[in-house]
Design brief:
The complex is a heterodimer. By secondary structure, chain A is of the alpha/beta class. Chain A is built from 23 helices and ten strands. Chain A has a five-stranded mixed sheet with strand order 7-6-8-5-9. A three-stranded antiparallel sheet of chain A has the order 3-10-4. Chain A has a two-stranded parallel ribbon with strand order 1-2. In chain A, helix 2 links the parallel strand 1 and strand 2. By secondary structure, chain B is an alpha/beta fold. Chain B starts with 6 loop residues before the first strand and ends with a helix. Classes of the chains: A alpha/beta, B alpha/beta. At the A-B interface, helix 19, helix 20 and helix 23 of A face helix 2 and helix 3 of B.
Chain lengths: 504, 256
Amino acid sequence: MKNKTLFPFLFLLCALLSFAPSRVAAAGGKPVIVGSKKFTESVVLGEIVKGVTQAAGVPAIHKRQFGGTRIIWRALKEGDIDAYVDYTGTLYHEDFAGQHITTMEGLRKKLSTYGVSMAPPLGFQNNYAIAMDPRRAKKLGIRTISDLRRHPELKLGFPSEFLNRKDGWPGMRAAYALPQTPVNIDQDLAYRGLVHGSVDAVVAYTTDAEIDYYHLALLKDDLHYFPIYKGVILYRTDLEKRAPAAVRNYKRLAGRIDTAAMAAMNRAVKIDRRSESAVAAGFLKKTFGMEVAARRKSWWTAFWRYTFAHLLLVLVSLSAAIAVSVPAGILAARHGRLGQVILGAAGVLQTMPSLALFVFMIPLFGIGRAPAIAALFLYSLLPIVRNTYAGLTGIPDGVLESAEALGLPERAKLWRIKLPMAAPTILAGIKTAAVINVGTATLAALIGAGGYGEPILAGIRLDDIGLIMTGAVPAAGMALLMQYGFELVETACVSKGLRLQRTG
Amino acid sequence: MKQAHANIFSLLNVSKRFGDKTVLKDFTLDILKDRTTVLLGPSGCGKSTILRLCLGLTAPTQGRVLFEGAPIAPGKGDAIRRKMGYVIQDGGLFPHMTARENVCIMARYLKWPREKMAARLDELREMTNFPQDGLSSYPAQLSGGQQQRVALMRALMLDPDVLLMDEPLGALDSIIRHRLQNDLKDIFSRLRKTVVMVTHDIGEAGFFGDKVVLMRGGAIEQAGRFADLVHKPANGFVREYIAAQRGVADVLENAG
């Protein structure tokens, strides 16, 4: 029974891991939590907001790279974050679509019903534009979006958010009567696709660094379809009491970042490879003379932070999944009909796209680690339940009958015969769950839970393969280690008799 | 003497149905204490079901099964089963346990002292002609005949009153089968226990049975001494069943 010593150890490890981060939060009062979406401009603006908050003497944390508009808006609404920069166009046409809000005043009123306030616009506009290779556009005689109508053969590559937003492709296609069916391409990969010729036109933002860098041609929005996107700081109204100095600084930023300045900062990060915090610190120094310490963490510090966060997600969710699904599998194997219900339920969870499962957890658990752990937990159930069920129901009738005929009570039969015989199958299920879990946990960064997904997201955003590898390689390594670890557990826990039987 | 020949099991008007399939029909049989009763018949005649009814592994659809004069009550099965030993065709050994662990599982569960367990194991090992070094082997490392010896030791560990055996030699090749057959007979006569054995093999029935019960389709065709079945068959089926297998039985005899 060597496995008995293993579980307390795992439990202890989980307990230690879950205590560690609370230390940080406990120091120096409740910090202001700034959020950002998963594109460079948003991260830079997040650093700027964090900078001016700190300059006001208020501790601040920047949670980077949330997975989408709805996720970050919900996080603000629920109070999981205190501030982030959004765009007026997004608020009109996405968050409050169909509510006929057309003025800044209307927007302010609407936001106040959620306990959210809006600082005056920062100055720049980050509007949608359609970008093409200038030579190709010239050759085809395309200067306006209307001109696209004459070229149904052109391949348009848009990110899924643009494809789905009401102010994105659906409205644009209707307004311009466009015949093309666009392909889904990540925004961060779109420019490379354009340069390599795999797509003919992509959606660009007017502050994008790449427009200037690649000398792209922007097609004229001749029907004035695209709305205006002004950057605005949204913050929880209670900050006016909690951190009035910080809010004053948010208002001081009004009109101080014009489109050219924003594009230049984007370029500094994406093309010149400077860190977002350094660029933000440079801006604040130049504009306000504020001295903000740029985040300067060593590669190792960052690596350990990712590893710690990732391991925490995996270990907690996997331990919980084992604790729930092994008994569920036992129950399923014992009661035929209930068994089908349990297996069916676990199966449905597994068919859900993993990112969707993460997002579904947000209303229940907020953002950060809790919903990520919940999603990973649900995702790990099926392999373990199914294998426990299969392992137990696969035991030959003769063996079970012999055990019963010996007069071994049900409990003893379970612990001495059934579970040891099903152990290899159960462990195989846990191994599968662990490997899936480690991989899926990279998505947790999208809902603010950190982990190896963080450098992967940043790497995609910055077109930096090295950064992607910083997340992808350790994630793969962790999956392999998990697999190896469970093989050791198998050697220790599974009877030699069963291994002989399998090979014999 | 009356006590010695009392019935250990009585099946009274027992019917057993699985779904719409009737396995036993209004079946009545007494099983004598301290004797070897062989249940003989073609596969599917219900003979294994009788063993399972005696063990309380399954309950009769109608009728009663008595053990030592009392009905086998559901829920009290474990205590009764410890008075019985059960051996099935392929041994039913626990593959994750060594031979020793298999044999001692119940003794260990009942927290026997070490010395008592070791002594009993030694006694059984000698009785069944099982090699000492085989005790640390897993079932997968043992031959079919050795596995059956382990199964027999396991069944006998708690010194049960009854030994129930379902085709214990059925899966073995003929030489091993013959050797184990002789050992078994030896053990039965030494132990003087009640044995109920299920087989479809005439030779085995004749070799072991004090009483042979020939069954077909869930009912008894003839019950009595083996010689009576051979020489005074009750009907055409009995005559035909025995004639069809006599040849095989003779060959078996000669092979010894």
